[in-house]
Write a structure and sequence with these properties.
The complex is a heterodimer of chains A (745) and B (157).
Chain A: H1 13-18, E1 34-40, E2 46-52, H2 54-58, E3 62-67, E4 90-91, E5 97-103, H3 106-115, E6 117-122, H4 129-133, E7 160-168, H5 171-177, E8 180-188, E9 200-205, E10 211-215, H6 220-231, E11 238-242, H7 258-268, E12 272-275, H8 278-284, E13 291-299, E14 305-317, H9 325-333, E15 342-351, H10 365-382, H11 387-394, H12 414-425, E16 436-447, E17 452-458, E18 464-468, H13 476-488, E19 495-499, H14 516-543, E20 550-553, E21 556-559, E22 567-568, H15 569-576, E23 585-590, E24 596-608, E25 615-625, H16 632-651, E26 657-658, E27 661-662, E28 681-686, H17 708-720, H18 731-740
Parallel strand pairs in A: 1-12, 10-11, 14-15, 18-19, 25-28
Antiparallel strand pairs in A: 1-5, 2-4, 2-6, 3-5, 7-15, 8-13, 9-10, 9-12, 13-14, 16-24, 17-18, 17-23, 20-21, 21-22, 24-25, 26-27
Helix pairs in contact in A: 10-17, 13-14, 16-17
Chain B: E1 6-12, E2 15-21, H1 27-34, E3 53-56, E4 59-62, E5 75-77, H2 90-97, H3 107-120, H4 126-132, H5 144-156
Parallel strand pairs in B: 1-5
Antiparallel strand pairs in B: 1-2, 3-4, 3-5
Helix pairs in contact in B: 2-5
């Protein structure tokens, strides 16, 4: 292969390094913009008795004020229709939207917010998932069971919006047959994506009533659908123009400020821009679910796992939102990638008075691995087995499956990935320096695919344009260009590819779930292959040959064996204009992807300072089963970034709540890793072309964060013997654990 | 009553600008709104993320924390002024080649921090590079490729 598999800088990179890229807040129009602001609830849980906007409306410079009264009284939601865009009778989280204003400048907009008077009857909030499940917990939705819901929703009761129990084998017998049974509880708190670009929108409603929305989003077609649902409009009344996106990590797929901007633009007749503050973004965008876990595992003396019982409680937030993505995912991933004959999983999603949690890079993955992979480490130590050997003994192989994975799995490289990481780390010969330790964890992820379409056309000069609506987060667009170039025998420089908007792009999948490249790459490859067929068809007539005897490569098409006699792609493109088939272009679709496993094995070396509990990550190795790396530069880059994000979750990040309010909605108090905290990440790719992906590619972005907190926790235990069961692994917890075990001072 | 506007004169990327602005306008808003130089980004508005970093009279500042009136009479360099005459700065080339920009939102501030380092220390060590970007948060790359890019650009110059 000439283009696929080569390192290429991203196609849009020069715009980015020169400051030319247009992000959400950078959109400018010829006409003046109004500044939009949202009035959020100061209470986590309260009844709204009255909203008085009269004073705000009279303030000079205010052009529009909107509340729930300006919206059709419909509830929306992808899984459960439990949400109204503006709160009508009740607020359910701090920041729940009550009203919005548009004014000529920021100061006026802020003054207008202060003039809106809302009478609340404050209710007790519930933040913790387990507390929300108690019979005496305050009810967040009084009539939860009556809401419309998708078919997968089950077990709704009280604050529980989803409960599914799944049984495989005979769990009772499994535990009876076990020589040892281990049971532990773990907790992972809410963490936030903290993309550096906050949510931002510019909306305009034109004289014919059609809305245009410029936003940084991972899912332009989702947003178009959501806006249409909220306003009860047909889809063609909404145009979403995706801007460059300053990070998403799952957090930019659902509407946040967009409908408010549309309503304000409609009411004022002027374009309206809303940019979230960092604090608003922390408190109201869609962070990672906090998760309580109970893992009970039965093993034979030789380390064979015979039974696993798992109970998971995910705090989902005030609304379901995209939160049930976790329900599907967690069931698939909870056991880890192990052969376990007897399994019982109880999975709960519960309403809680905070932002509705949604997908964040590998939804549920790092939480579950923190529980599962720490327990595997504990078991290995108790049974005097090597942690790598124990995993190798139980890991799935080609043709095995795990709960809800959808049948026998193909392209399973768990063991090879384990061996590669262990070898790179020098696992057998680890240094035994004081207070230093090494931990390993095996990450499991399943990559599916979603309905996608993509267009390819041959331009009159032989260059190629790819028409796609997929938003570029992780280099997907560059990789799609590489795929088209590879098929058509041209260089990447001969291909133009950028993201088109919802009016013009063929329906494209979301940039999430590590499936963007798999889905869109499949559609793009099909379209490029069809274009290649059309090239041969047009050239065949001119060259008086059979289309099947033609070779398309090196920007030319020729009859096999007579390379010098062919046509350039430019000649073919021009010929097509007078040929019976006309211009060379194709749009192709792809859907129905089976689940494919992807494995990531991480080895962390840490040093723990016993006097302070400070942890320093000395070395970090990440081996990942990626199928074919279409662009190794992007593949490595994604894995490195993902590990550093995961280290934040492991060591320093948590959204902290008191009385329903987040106490640390700033980068000062919510500590993500800086350059001084971040170790170098050594990446080792395990490459085997996988079935069902374009040129054998697997998803990359999510598997790479799954094992991080577990690997670090295991390394800390190895270093000083402190076992921490709740994230993040802070110095305080480590010191406490050392004191309790008598190892501290 | 809104306070009276103030007149300021600044040199941005070699061009002189005279504008009347509200006294509470931050340097960041002045650049982005009054001068339409949107390359400089806002990530937090509180001086914690570095997305808004610019070079003000030879030192790196978070432009969200500085009032535009404080910059009166001074020289400002933003990402738009890093390349000269349509040619990329070695840092820009190196960031592109090393994969040091993914989403690209922190990139303008990051390049300004890196440029400020090279302006004062043309041959930095990896440790000095890490320290120079310690005030610039990046959520995509994990920083390693950024340090590689800075060291590679330093070699180029």
């Amino acid at each position: 292969m000439k283009v696929v598999g080569q390192e290429h800088p991203r196609v849009e990179i020069l715009e980015k390094v020169t400051g030319q890229s247009v992000f959400g807040a950078d959109v400018r129009l010829a006409s003046p913009l109004l500044v939009g602001k949202i009035l959020g609830s100061p209470h986590a849980h309260a009844r709204i008795k009255n909203i008085d906007t009269r004073k705000a409306e009279k303030l000079p410079g205010v052009k529009a004020v909107v509340t729930a009264r300006d919206f059709p009284p419909v509830k929306f939601g992808r899984f459960i229709q439990d949400e109204e865009y503006f709160a009508r009778d009740k607020v359910r989280l701090v920041g729940d939207k009550v009203a919005a204003v548009a004014a000529v400048d920021e100061e006026t907009a802020e003054e207008a917010l202060r003039l809106i008077k809302v009478d609340y009857e404050v209710l007790p909030p519930v933040i913790d998932g387990l507390e929300a499940m108690r019979p005496d917990a305050p009810l967040i939705h009084e009539d939860c069971e009556r809401y419309g819901a998708a078919g997968i929703v089950q077990g709704r009761k009280g604050n529980i919006l989803y409960h599914k129990q799944s049984l495989h084998g005979d769990i009772e017998r499994g535990f009876r047959e076990a020589d040892r049974v281990f049971e532990h509880r773990f907790f992972a708190p809410m963490v936030h994506q903290t993309y550096i670009e906050p949510h931002a929108v510019l909306a305009r409603v034109d004289a014919s009533g059609r809305a245009t929305v410029w936003i940084p989003t991972q899912a332009q077609f989702f947003i178009r659908q959501s806006i249409a649902d909220i306003f009860q409009w047909p889809l063609i009344k909404v145009r979403v123009i995706p801007t460059e996106i300053g990070g998403g990590f799952g957090g930019k797929m659902l509407p946040t400020v967009e409908p408010a901007a549309v309503a304000l633009a409609q009411k004022s007749g002027m374009p309206v821009q809303i940019v979230m503050s960092r604090a608003e973004d922390f408190q109201t965008a869609n962070p990672r679910h906090p998760c309580h876990m109970r893992y009970k595992t039965g093993v034979k003396r030789d380390g064979t796992i015979v039974a696993r019982e798992i109970e998971l409680v995910f705090g989902t937030g005030a609304f379901c939102g995209n939160g049930l993505v976790i329900g599907q995912r967690a069931e698939m991933l909870a056991t880890g990638p192990y052969r376990i004959p007897n399994v019982k999983i109880d999975l709960f999603c519960v309403y809680t008075n905070h932002a509705n949690c949604g997908p964040y890079r590998a939804p549920s993955g790092p939480q579950l691995a923190f529980g599962s992979e720490q327990q595997i480490d504990i078991i290995a130590r108790e049974l005097n087995l090597d942690p790598v050997e124990l995993r190798l003994k139980n890991a799935i192989e080609e043709g095995d499956t795990t709960p809800a994975a959808g049948g026998p799995l193909k392209s399973v490289h768990a063991k090879e990935t384990l061996r590669k990481a262990a070898e790179a780390a020098g696992w057998g010969a680890k240094p035994r320096e004081k207070n230093r330790g090494r931990g390993i964890a095996l990450g499991y992820w399943l990559v599916g695919g979603m309905a996608s379409s993509s267009g390819v056309k041959l331009n009159e000069d032989g260059t190629v344009s790819v028409l796609t609506g997929v938003v570029d987060l992780s280099g997907t667009v560059t990789s799609l260009g590489q795929i088209a170039a590879e098929v058509l025998g041209v260089d990447l420089e001969d291909v133009h590819i950028r993201t088109a908007d919802s009016d013009f792009a063929p329906h494209s999948t979301i940039s999430a779930g590590s499936q963007g490249l798999r889905s869109m790459g499949t559609a793009t490859k099909l379209a490029a292959e069809e274009v290649k067929k059309q090239i041969a068809e047009v050239a065949a007539d001119k060259l008086e040959a059979e289309a099947g005897d033609l070779v398309v490569e090196g920007k030319r098409v020729y009859v096999r064996g007579t390379k010098e006699k062919g046509l350039s792609l430019a000649q073919v493109a021009q010929l097509s204009m007078t040929h019976k088939r006309g211009p060379i272009v194709s749009v192709q679709s792809a859907a129905q992807f089976s689940n494919q496993p992807a494995f990531s094995v991480h080895v962390a070396d840490v040093e723990v300072e016993p006097e302070t509990g400070q942890v320093k990550v000395l070395r970090y190795i990440a081996a990942q089963d990626v199928g074919t790396a279409i662009n190794p530069l992007s593949a490595r880059g994604q894995i490195q970034g993902s590990v550093i994000q995961g280290l934040g979750q492991a060591l320093s990040e948590a959204c902290i709540f008191k009385n329903g309010k987040m106490l640390n909605p700033t980068f000062l108090d919510y500590k993500i890793f800086s350059s001084l905290d971040a170790p170098r990440v050594e990446v080792h790719l395990v490459e085997h072309a996988a079935e069902g992906g374009p040129f054998g590619a697997k998803g990359i972005g999510e598997p790479s964060i799954v094992p991080v907190p577990a690997a670090v926790a295991n390394a800390i235990y190895d270093a000083v013997g402190a076992r921490i069961f709740d994230l993040p692994l802070t110095p305080e917890k480590i010191l406490l654990a050392l004191q309790e075990s008598g190892k501290g001072r | 009553m809104k306070p009276a506007k103030k007149r300021i004169t600044v040199t941005v990327n070699g061009e002189s600008y005279e504008r009347e602005i509200a006294p509470a306008t931050s340097l960041l808003d002045f650049l982005r709104t009054d001068l339409n130089l949107t390359g400089t980004k806002e990530g937090c508005g509180e001086g914690e993320c570095g997305a808004c970093a610019v070079i003000l009279d030879g030192r790196l500042v978070d432009s969200c924390l500085i009032l535009a009136v404080e910059a009166d009479g001074q020289t400002i360099q933003t990402i738009e002024g890093v390349g000269q005459n349509g040619r990329l700065h070695p840092l820009q080339k190196a960031f592109a080649a090393k994969g040091a920009a993914q989403c690209g939102y922190c990139t303008p501030g990051m390049i300004m921090a890196a440029k400020n380092l090279l302006d004062h220390n043309p041959k930095p060590t990896a440790e000095q590079a890490l320290k120079a970007i310690a005030g610039n948060l990046c959520r995509c790359t994990g920083y390693g490729s950024i340090v590689d890019a800075i060291l590679s650009a330093a070699k180029e110059r």
